Amino acid sequence: MTWAVDLDGVVWLAGRPIPGAAEAVGQLRESGVRVVFLTNNSSLTVADYQQRLGSMGIPVEAGDILTSAQAAASLLPPGSTALVCAGPGVDEALAERGVRTVTEGRADAVVVGWHRSFDFDRLAAATSCVLGGARLIGTNDDATYPTPEGPLPGGGALLAAVAYASGADPVVAGKPHPPVAALLRERVGEVEVMVGDRPSTDGLMARRLEARFALVLTGVTEPGHDKVDPAPDMEAKDLAELVARAIPRHGSLEGKG
Q1: CA 81 to CA 96: how far, in whole Å?
Q2: In Å, what is the CA distance from 143 to each residue of 13, 71, 113, 157, 220?
Q3: What is the mean pLDDT of residues 143-149?
Q4: Residue 250 has what pLDDT?
Q5: Per-residue pLDDT at 251
Q6: Beta-ladder partners of 3
Q7: Are 224 and 204 a contacting pair, CB within 8 Å?
Q8: Beta strands in 2-89 (DSSP E)
Q9: How far is CA 179 from the centre of its chain?
Q10: Could you list the active site residues?
Q11: CA–CA distance, 178 with 197 (Å, rounded to integer)
Q12: Helix (H, G, I), strand (E, B), or coil: what is residue 174?
């Protein structure tokens, strides 16, 4: 059995570990569940994710980390050129794909992802490149990014700025869209449970994968929320509570919570 677990809002908030998350992952593994991490955050490299997870007590192989940056890179053929309006994770994924990256001028595609250095100059370079004929690819279209102090503008907000300025209709690679689903099936195979904090991405991703959706309330969706769509197959206050319910059935969810 395989669980795909989101990172931001499930395992940590802006890099700050959520209490009990590391122990919950350990319990899943001890019960025979394979845990892979599936994130829409394209800003970090795989090694960054390994270091951050390892520092909180979750050792992980590189192959068990899947990102929207990798999904975006899969849309470009080796030998093509991409203008990057994103963080180091996108640069890494494109390089591994054999795509040459630039920060200005013409390119075959513009790849937009969440990063904190987005400014007018980056917006102008990306817009000009798209107006010059480049495809517009977004690593994700999340409107917000969860932090302990509240939500920040997400990758979707940056993508929307480039799309609006250029008039282009972007292709989105991350959850819940087809490119990341194809990447997950290729590298991992069948996933039985998708754990996340955002129904519009993690929940729809679960439906696309024909997996069960487990909603935790440590990120975008907070306790006392209104009805969400899609409805979760199970809901818990955090990953620790979710796993505590699941372990008696050896990693299988016991029903709606």
Answers
A1: 13
A2: 16, 19, 12, 5, 10
A3: 89
A4: 44
A5: 44
A6: 35, 193
A7: no
A8: 2-5, 12-13, 16-17, 34-39, 65-67, 81-85
A9: 12
A10: 6, 8
A11: 20
A12: coil
Compute CA distances 63 → 21, 184, 198, 227, whole Å: 20, 11, 24, 35
Q: Answer with the residue of higher pLDDT: 255 or 229.
A: 229
In the predicted structure, residue 194 carries a pLDDT above the cut 70:
yes
Domains and CATH numbers, the chain: 2-40+176-249 (3.40.50.1000), 76-172 (3.40.50.1000)
Q: Residues 211, 213, 216, CA angle at the centre, nearest 5°?
A: 150
Q: Which residue(s) pair with 72 in the sheet?
A: none
Q: Where are the beta strands (DSSP E) in the chain?
A: 2-5, 12-13, 16-17, 34-39, 65-67, 81-85, 100-102, 109-112, 135-138, 144-145, 152-153, 171-172, 193-196, 212-216, 234-236
51: CB partners within 8 A, 6+ apart: none
Query: Cβ of 18: how many Cβ atoms within 10 Å?
Result: 21
Task: Answer yes or no: are the C-beta atoms of 132 and 105 closer than 8 Å.
Answer: no
Instruction: Name the nearest CA neighbour of 191 among 66, 20, 71.
Output: 66
With bands split at pLDDT 50, 70 and 90, how would you rate the model's confidence at 149? confident
Measured over the CA atoms of residue 38, residue 45, residue 41 and residue 82, the dihedral's sign is negative
